[in-house]
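Dear colleagues,

As part of the handover before I leave the project, I'm documenting each prediction I ran so the next person doesn't have to rerun anything. This entry is a single chain, and its sequence is reproduced below.
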Amino acid sequence: MSNLASSVSDSSQPILCYYSNHSSHIQIALLVSGLPGLRLEQVLFPGQRWMFWSRPEAALEIYAAQAGKPALIGQYPCTQLQVVEQAAGALVT
């Protein structure tokens, strides 16, 4: 993950992202960053959470095994997965 942060230009600061596998099946997450030669892949077990650094313009593709082959089940822009810090004591309703 540090390779991603170090390869990002100053004009595109990395963002901290979060994804959680809410399904009852194993998923494979693939970060599509747009950087040549960079591939970030993570196996996510049911209920597992994953935090990762990414470029804002990147996307996370989620795959599940169906009939023995991976099938794309979702694609999320990393800006939608970005972790947003809230002020201490703030109530979220």
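The two ends are 33 Å apart (CA to CA). The beta strands are 15-20, 27-32, 40-44, 49-54, 59-66, 69-77.

All the best with the project,
I.
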